[in-house]
Amino acid sequence: MKYFSFELKRIFSSKKNKVLFSILTILLIVLVGFSINLKNSNNIKAMENFLNDNITVSTQALEGMRNDSSVPKDIVKDSEDLLKLYNSQKNALQNNDVKKYYKLQLEVNNMNIQHGQAGEFLEDENKYIKDVLKKGLDFENYPQAQLHSFGVIHEVFFPLIFSSLFYIILLIMGGISIASNFENESMRLYKTPLFHKKNIILANFGANVFSLTIWYLSAVAFYIVSVGIMNGFGALNYPSAIQDLYLVDNWKIDLVYLVWGFLLIFFIVSLGTLLSLVVRKSILVVGLFAIIVLGFDMIKNQIFMEKFLKYIPMSYFEPIKLLQNNNNLPDHALIVGAIYLLSLTIIFLLISMYKYRKISFRKI
Q1: Dihedral, CA of residue 151, residue 152, residue 154 and residue 160, to nearest 10
Q2: Minimum mean pLDDT among 38-42, 61-65, 109-113, 329-333: which range?
Q3: How far is 192 from 304, CA to CA, in rounded Å?
Q4: For residue 264, what are the CA distances in angstroms to 71, 176, 233, 270?
Q5: Which alpha helices (H) appear in the chain, and where do they start and end?
């Protein structure tokens, strides 16, 4: 506990960490500003422009049908009804009645499905509209383009957190402290009676994980509250769409992302600790980790990698992809990935503790 407190104070007093925390805080503020500004983009106007295009095309097509006696009357009637629906949707948007617009969209989709147009996509959209209506929620612009806090966080904030650049930043902030101690020769101080050697690695790991966790939770809370105050918080049970996942409640996606952030902090700090004990140079630790992460990003989509992906830890870094059907990963990939990353974290820590006990230091 003495070393944990000592290491925690060292982390928060480090100039390097102060600079990185400041940069990340500025980046967080920029992200909040960007997310708030999304509400100012005139999405209703864009939807209205799209409807105007549909109305123009439908009007021209209907005139051609009326002038062609060979066109069956029921097709002409359907085209007239469709044009009326488009105009009703336009009026609804002009009155800012998004709910009425989507109710009419159900009728438009059903008519288009009857005529064999993009049935699967339109059926999915119908499911989305019915789900929102059933839950009695206010409509977002689209399930994959939400403006409120609980939806936009997994569209803007979390994808940045779960990126190669941020993995490297996490390592620099919390995974190279042991290597830095070797470089400035402060590691030998930990052989004094003040520190029991069997606790040093665990305490160092715990202090770094704690500091990163504090920043991570603070960043998530700040983002949710800031965007929520300006744009509204939205609904946790609003049906969302992200990548290939469709109609998954916001809270499920947000929770998976939130928990997975903790797993990655544990894994990256433990890996950084092990690499620090091996190479003892912080720049080498960062370089090796960057090569591993960025190199994997470059080759992960190659055909020859398919059979190896399930064995590579970086394959489990992005939780949303684990929820999708991926033939290259095991069944229940999210659970498998969590167990795999936690197991590797424990293994890295055990190896680090063993290796540290074998290190000899200069007497002081």
Answers
A1: -170
A2: 38-42
A3: 51
A4: 62, 15, 27, 10
A5: 2-13, 15-37, 43-66, 73-94, 98-114, 119-135, 149-152, 158-161, 164-174, 177-183, 197-231, 250-279, 282-299, 319-323, 333-357
Q: Is the dihedral angle over the CA atoms 354, 359, 360, 362 positive or is it negative?
A: negative
Phi, psi of 249 (to 5 degrees): -60, 145
CA 261, CA 242: separation in Å to the nearest integer? 18
Task: For residue 245, list its beta bridge partners.
Answer: 242
Contacts with 109 (C-beta within 8 Å, 6 or more apart), sequence order: 122, 123, 125, 126
SS3 state of residue 354? helix
**Could you give the C-alpha distances from 312 to 8, 155, 163, 287, in angstroms and in order?**
32, 26, 16, 19
Summarize pLDDT for 93-136 with one digit per residue, the tens.
888 888 898 999 999 888 888 877 666 778 888 888 899 999 98
Which of 282, 27, 271 has the alpha carbon at shortest distance from 180?
282
Sign of CA dihedral 21, 212, 315, 147: negative
A 10 A CB-CB count for 348 gives: 21
CA angle, 320 as apex, 317 and 325 as ends, to 5°?
105
